[in-house]
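step=encode ok
step=design start
structure_in=
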């Protein structure tokens, strides 16, 4: 499956929107998940094949000529127009996905597989918490649009600075907090966790979505499962990337990291003090 670029535009200094269409998307079927994504395959410059290609066309090539896989969030799928919108985080000329998005022209093709997904805001939740960095911003924006109307929803997003803030629309009772790295002096792994820890603890069932950098999401997870007492059943926590590692290096250790995080335990909350007149 592949899409052909229709339009591109910058949403912010570090986020590009690419709209894809064409006959290569005829078989695309949305999962209906708010966080659905596609596995995209970026062709290196000078590779001896064109999109679309078969796996057999690339399997025996040197590694530097094989396509580089990256998971990209589906920001929007228009079933009537058969158009796929991807919002892709960019970091200048670093990274295959971001560099491709910066230079994509109408008619360029992008090979992909999917979609897949696993999270939509739980309908039974009393409130929602959506947390992440630029890499998770497209999924956060899609989730915000899927929240039941009027339901309290807090969004906390870490970006480089004010220029990276984008509008987030939602039928919910929405509260958005932006955390600017450029203004911060503390531990970069704790910026989001500290912002979440400062929020009032929500009553009732909280549906939480925490995606982004590995150490940062782990720190937020500890806050939510610890002091905020969010039920793990209602927590979607996914590390998209790891500070200091490129994507290939992160893929090689991600499973072990996930097992280590999943093994963390949290003590039960302290028992409420007895009310007056209660016997022991």
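sequence_out=
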């Amino acid at each position: 499956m592949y899409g052909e670029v229709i339009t591109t535009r910058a949403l912010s200094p570090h986020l590009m929107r690419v709209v894809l269409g064409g006959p290569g998307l005829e078989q695309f079927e949305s999962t209906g998940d708010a966080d659905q994504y596609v596995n995209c395959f970026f062709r290196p410059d000078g590779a001896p094949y064109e999109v679309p290609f078969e796996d057999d066309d690339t399997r025996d090539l040197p590694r530097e000529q094989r396509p580089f896989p990256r998971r990209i969030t589906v920001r929007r799928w228009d079933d009537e127009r058969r158009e796929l919108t991807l919002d892709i985080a960019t970091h200048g000329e670093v990274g295959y996905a971001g560099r491709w998005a910066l230079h994509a022209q109408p008619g360029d093709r992008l090979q992909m597989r999917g979609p897949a997904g696993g999270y939509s805001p739980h309908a039974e939740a009393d409130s929602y918490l959506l947390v992440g960095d630029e890499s998770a911003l497209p999924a956060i924006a899609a989730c915000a649009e899927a929240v039941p109307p009027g339901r309290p929803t807090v969004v906390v997003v870490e970006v480089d600075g004010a220029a990276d803030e984008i509008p987030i629309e939602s039928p919910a009772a929405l509260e958005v907090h932006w955390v600017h790295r450029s203004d911060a002096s503390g531990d970069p792994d704790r910026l989001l966790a500290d912002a979440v820890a400062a929020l009032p603890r929500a009553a009732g069932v909280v549906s939480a979505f925490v995606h982004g950098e590995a150490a940062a999401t782990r720190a937020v997870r500890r806050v939510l499962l610890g002091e905020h007492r969010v039920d793990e059943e209602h927590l979607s926590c996914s590390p998209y990337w790891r500070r200091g590692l490129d994507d290939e290096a992160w893929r090689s250790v991600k499973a072990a990291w996930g097992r280590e995080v999943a093994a963390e335990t949290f003590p039960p909350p302290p028992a409420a003090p007895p009310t007056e007149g209660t016997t022991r």
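step=design ok
step=annotate ok -> The longest helix spans residues 247-262.
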